[in-house]
Design goal:
Elements lengths: L4 E6 L2 E6 L10 H14 L7 E6 L10 H8 L9 H10 L4 E5 L2 E3 L1 H4 L6 E4 L4 E3 L13 H9 L1 H10 L3 E2 H6 L5 E2 L5 H13 L3 H11 L2 H19 L2 H11 L13
Parallel strand pairs: 2-3, 3-4, 4-6, 5-7, 6-9
Antiparallel strand pairs: 1-2, 7-8
Helix pairs in contact: 1-3, 2-11, 3-10, 5-6
Coenzyme A (COA) binds next to helix 2 and strand 5.
Length: 258
């Protein structure tokens, strides 16, 4: 358990808070490990009827820690990558998951929403999938789930350009349920969690399993991971990570394609 993930359990609701606001809740390997442990153990805990995911500070999460990406690109990454366990746990979870998103949700911050069952956005929420800008490929089965959800051309645009999707557009496209009034995000999310926690949990869990095919999701995640790993060590990705560290724009035209 890391201090950068806070957990609070009350009234059947397990609230998971990303708590690394000084780094915009960028997710580290250790944080993924804790998140995976929480979601896995919730699956076998009948006292937990709903999971509620939120982030401290001015944004939900800036996605994967780019410093850790850079370490992996130069072969210095962790021996065990917990992100896979986290993603598999998300795909397999039969507990309803609610997400409350303010500010930016970058990379996995957006793709994890495709595994949530009810998504609330603050008016300033922006969903961003900059995988191509980082010379990577989409993960979390989003290469399959996003086109399925919003159509191929819109998903291509989000992935290829990496430009933010604003909150009303995310609702219009079916990625989120509602935009909350200013300052109401956490209260609204809590109220929705209470409503869902009051429903018959066995029925919800059976319904969720029918609605999501965990096996297909995990298979897609595994194909993406293989490609992602390959891309991480590409010259293009090294240029993208160096540019982030040096706070400059990447110059891909100088880098050979492979
Ligand atoms: N990984 C590691 N550190 C990150 C981070 C990330 N994904 N996102 C932000 N941070 C750090 C910054 O390096 C900075 O650290 P510093 O104070 O030690 O310099 C701190 O968080 C604040 O970020 P900053 O960039 O100053 O905030 P901002 O509000 O101007 O911009 C973002 C926020 C999210 C737009 C910008 O930080 C960003 O683009 N981050 C990278 C997002 C990304 O590509 N994620 C991977 C997706 S696959």
């Amino acid at each position: 358990m890391t201090a950068e993930i806070h957990v609070d359990q009350a009234d059947g609701i397990l609230t998971i808070t990303l708590a690394r606001p000084d780094k915009k809740n960028a997710l580290t390997n250790v944080m993924y490990g804790t998140l995976a442990d929480i979601i896995e153990s919730a699956e076998h805990d009948s006292n937990i009827r709903v999971l509620l995911v939120q982030g401290d500070g001015d944004m939900f999460t800036a996605g994967n820690d780019v410093g850790e990406f850079a370490a992996m690109a130069s072969g210095k990454g962790p021996s065990e990558r917990h992100v896979h366990r986290f993603l598999h746990a998300l795909a397999k979870s039969s507990v309803p998951i609610i997400a409350a998103v303010q500010g930016k949700a970058v990379g996995i911050g957006t793709t994890m929403l495709l595994h949530c069952d009810y998504v609330l956005l603050a008016p300033d929420a922006e969903l961003i999938t900059p995988f191509v800008n980082l010379a990577l490929v989409p993960e979390a089965a989003s290469s399959w789930l996003l086109p399925l959800r919003i159509g191929h051309v819109r998903a291509f645009e989000m992935f290829a350009l990496g430009e933010p999707l604003d909150a009303p557009s995310a609702v219009a496209l079916g990625i989120a349920n509602k935009v909350c009034a200013n300052g109401q995000l956490r209260d609204d999310a809590r109220r929705m969690a209470e409503r869902i926690a009051a429903k018959p949990a066995g029925s919800l869990s059976a319904m969720k399993k029918l609605m999501r095919n965990a096996q297909t999701l995990v298979a897609q995640m595994d194909s993406e991971s293989a490609k992602f790993q390959e891309r991480l060590t590409s010259a293009e990705a090294r240029e993208a990570f160096a540019a982030f560290a040096e706070k400059r724009k990447p110059e891909f035209s100088r880098v050979p394609q492979h």
